[in-house]
Write a structure and sequence with these properties.
- This protein is 42% helix and 20% strand.
- It contains 8 helices and 7 strands, in the order αααβαβαβαβαβαββ.
- It has a 7-stranded mixed β-sheet, sandwiched between helices.
- Helix 5 links the parallel strand 2 and strand 3.
- Helix 6 runs parallel beside helix 7.
- The chain is globular.
């Protein structure tokens, strides 16, 4: 008997169909994606379906104040800023000026550069500074997609900074399936495995893990 919880695997043909009937990627976003795809580190870029989900969540929650940890070439920042109102503000945390400079020109072209406050320093320093400034509980939205070994610390800071009813999105929580394999004990996998287990039991949030791309977890602060 077929397991009612089983679903067909998302292969290339099915993903192409999903894109053909749901993806509404503006030209400026597509060109940023194409430029990023030419880089050796292109795999760090969020998938198109993830970008669509981020934009929908931001619009649905009427996000006006957000931060993201991990910018790379600016794709997630661009889709987030485009979905925010004109007076919205996104604090974008990264340490790589070369990669983020790629995103800047597309932010400018899309007319959202005024919404994005890029902070080129270790993200924990920026988050701790925001807390010291008394900004706890004032953010609507947070997106975590940076160095995996710090995921636990990023999550705890995000939980302090986001308001009740605000959303924390954590990327790469499936991490190529490695968290399921307890024989895999590298630092990044252990950090993600630990956070996944913590989130499962964290009564401070409502939770859903989505098996899209490399996994996205949504944690709504209660």
């Amino acid at each position: 008997m077929k397991n009612p919880n089983e679903h067909p695997p998302i292969d290339a043909a099915m993903l192409a169909y999903v894109y053909s009937v749901s993806l509404r990627e503006p030209d400026v976003i597509k060109r940023l994606r194409d430029e990023t795809d030419s880089l050796p580190d292109a795999g760090m870029q969020s998938a198109s379906e993830q970008g669509a989900l981020l934009a929908l969540l931001v619009e649905m929650l009427n996000v006006k104040k957000a931060f993201e940890i991990g910018v790379f070439t600016g794709y997630s920042a661009l889709v987030t800023a485009l979905a925010m109102p004109d007076d919205g503000r996104l604090i974008a945390c990264d340490v790589n000026e070369a990669f983020t400079s790629i995103g800047k020109k597309y932010w400018q072209e899309a007319g959202v550069a005024h919404k994005i406050d890029l902070r080129l320093r270790p993200a924990l320093e920026t988050l701790d500074e925001l807390l010291a400034e008394g900004q706890a509980g004032t953010f609507d939205f947070a997106f975590i997609d940076a160095d995996k070994s710090n995921y636990g610390d990023y999550y705890e800071r995000a939980l302090q900074l986001v308001r009740p009813g605000g959303l924390i999105v954590v990327d790469n929580t499936l991490w190529y399936g490695k968290p399921m394999d307890l024989s895999v004990q590298d630092a990044d996998t252990v950090a993600i495995r630990t956070l996944n287990q913590k989130l499962h039991h964290d009564e401070r949030v409502s939770l859903a893990m989505l098996p899209i791309a490399d996994g996205m977890t949504l944690a709504l602060k209660r």
